[in-house]
Amino acid sequence: MAQNDSMLVIAQDAIALARKKGANEAAAGAYRVRNVEVQWRDGKVEKVSEATTRGLGLELYVEGRYSSVSTSDLRLEAVERFLEDAVALTRKLAADPHRALPDPSLYEGQAKVDLELEDPRYGEVDALRRRKIAEDLEASARSVKGAQAILSVTTAFGDTMAESFRATSNGFVGARRVTDFGMSAQVSVKDPDGRRPEDWDAASARHFTALPSPEEVGRNAAARALSRIGSRKGESALFAMAVENRSAGRLLGFLMGPLAASALQQKRSFLDGKLGQQIASAKLDLADDPLVPRGLGSRLFDSEGIAARRFTVFEKGMLRSYYVDNYYGRKLGMRPTTRGMSNLAWKLGDKGPDALLADMKEGFLVTGFLGGNSNGTTGDFSLGAQGFRVRGGKVAEVIGEMNVSGNHLELWQRLAAVGNDPYPYSASRTPTLVFEGVQFAGM
Amino acid sequence: MSASTLIIGAGGAGEAGASDLVVGGAGGKPQPGGATSSIGYFARFGVTEAMIAEALGAALSRGGDYADVFFQHRVSNDLALEDGAVNRAFASVELGVGVRVVKGDQTGYGYSEDLSLAALRTCAQTAAAIADGPSRGAPQRFHVAARLPQRYPLRVRWEEIRPEQKLPILDAVNARVFAADPRVKKVSVHFRDESGAVLLADSQGRIVEDLQPMTLLYVSCLAEQNGQREQGGYNVAGRAGFEFYAPDRVDRVVREAVARTTILFEAAPPPAGEMPVVLAAGSSGILLHEAIGHGMEADFNRKNVSIYADKIGKPIARPFVNIVDDATNENARGAINVDDEGNEAGRTQLVENGVLATYLHDSISARHYGVAPTGNGRRQGYQFPPMPRMRSTYMLPGPHKKDEIIASVKKGIYCQNFTNGQVNIGAGDFTFYVKNGYLIEDGKLTRPIKDVNIIGNGPKVLEMVDMVSDDLQIDEGGWTCGKDGQSVPVSQGLPTVRVSSMTVGGRGKG
User: Fold this and answer.
1) Which domains does chain A have, with CATH numbers?
2) pLDDT at position B40, please?
3) What is the ipTM of this complex?
4) A196: which of A179, B111, B148, B489 is 20 to 30 A away, CA to CA?
């Protein structure tokens, strides 16, 4: 870690300045991010963009009062004035005895591992290379069978180097450098009935060489889009539902959000009071794991500086942990775990999506959710859905304009199977999930 | 991936608001229509006309058809109440510049928080990479665009409103919501205000400046009855000053937050399947935003990917259906005096007597189609190039009456309040989520319904709008539209409308 990085110095100086202006305690975060992106469409560059962006944020504790402030105007005189005003504002708030920096003991015990979050070869990817990838993504999309129905292909490649620094007035100092490489292809096709369905494929990774080939991503995007031609609404009924791994993250997120201590404390969580209870079938078994090398959610410490540790969230369907940050932990009298999800490590099944559909026999394969929402207080949800009907264990007609609904407290009890295929381009790494008896609305 | 989203309230802890940086010093307030160098506001940040000229020169150093430089200073404050006290505040200051070069329909873009000449040059050179020809000169002279409309003039700027003036509103709302119903157990209130200043200078020598306020009051309450918990709320937003919080508005916020929460105890999801859907006047405008608004953004159409790409001039709805996208509604959240490319922003009629009339254009699309820009070129901030976005989208009053519409439905639903929506503009499928509503049975509102997503296909649904009442309402809520990674504030409205059939994502058979 660069002890004398200018952004870390800015963060530390800001703490000193805040205290000079009257704050008793403070935490500061500073970041510097460089992002480069090329977008490509139908044979030529659509957009090129590049920027290095910086910012500074502070949590201020002033005579028992709390505020969180940020600025991108880092001129010294501007920061000074900014902090003066921020401290003055904070004094006008009501005191909150639960607001405090984490106890320093929570900073201790950071794992001493190299998470490999920074690709040492980051600087080798140049403009020509980015452009070639974007071009290849399109060429591959247009190489698939049925490509004459393609109306348009938009592709993109981008990379990011993000450096963040955190310092607190009670002794925490931490820095993190991560690189991120991402590619995507979006394909629109002509349906003879006049519609122009589209689909996409994408990949992202911390290391450039971990990305799949543009050929794979381009072809997938086109194949998926072409498979949407002729989509119809299905009938309203209860059906088994398989959710494709890359779409399952949204559904899972509705179960994970209510695990936040803020939701518990404000009585807005349908998982309140359910620690140790059976929330799902025994198939749901997952842990929060911050120490996965190259993981998209990996970290040695969380956003409050608390040392990152693996912990079980669901064990054979039983709820084992909440996500507890320092503040709401103090309000609830609970020891903090961590504020936000890092990576999820699943106990995977031993079958892939095709075998799971064969077992399912009749139902739907959902390949995308559209809008809809989930009520974190009650667990009710209703989501637009598209995908395919499954008949005799195989993918059959393409389906769209449908809706699935239910309540999470019932839905996850009917989790019948978990696949062996974690989606690699997300922190939640969801595998295919199969549920029994889900309400589909259509005709 | 191109699915565009709309959400209400933007609740939850924010980014941060800011402290009170005073707009002032010599030449503080910009004077539209005045002398060429009326960039007084940004002169405070060391920005001069000479620097802008140099940046544009660097931007056009490899040719290109057009370039612009977009400066932005935005100061936001969020005072929040939880568990009975205003015990947290969030404040943020954003200051930055974006440089864009356009060649045909291709864009180069660079941005920075550093407003020095060196940083401006770097951004400009980054943006110039899109072009590949001989240099074009920078403009020799700048002129301030003709006097802008004033759709959100402030009597007193937010920088001059002290926390002591805002705190009583939060405390009063909290006390009144609790007092309204003993079942209320938790209340949270957010009071947000924002002051924004933008300056755009372009290769045509045009300078445009605007001051852009925004405020939002968001109340969420949690009620408990016999072990059952329900959460609801209400929010209001506008480009307005402190006077926005007149007593009648605050009364309404308290009343609606409680009513929309407690009715949920009596509500159940409706049945699943196709049925007539009646949309209450007001925020049901989300139907338009999703069913047609995004699909009519000109970039999707010039790229040939929207389901509306070949429908201009064609009848797509009954003759009494008229849909507009409007920048002019005074103090509306979706109002703008000028768009983020410096173009005039007025009222654009998307559907005229049932016929699809025009797309929503930014400059690139307008040039592609050979029409005048419609002032829909918006950006989330200096970090982004503009693209076609909506402003305030609504349907004009029609020939029917609300009571007549409800009475016409034998078995269907009445939708009143919404949380969010989304659309795939190619397939045309769109959804919106209904938080509160009623079953309609034999022409009457009967049981309350809740938490149901409605899904339909845009062009099909427009054809099925078969009754439109005369009670147009533009919703006062804090709607935020997302597209391609950029969020912008918008408004929407609708008269009471009947759609003869949509798929209702409920449960069980009716």
Assistant:
1) 6-31+51-107 (3.30.2290.10), 122-167+174-226 (3.30.2290.10), 237-441 (no CATH)
2) 83
3) 0.96
4) B489
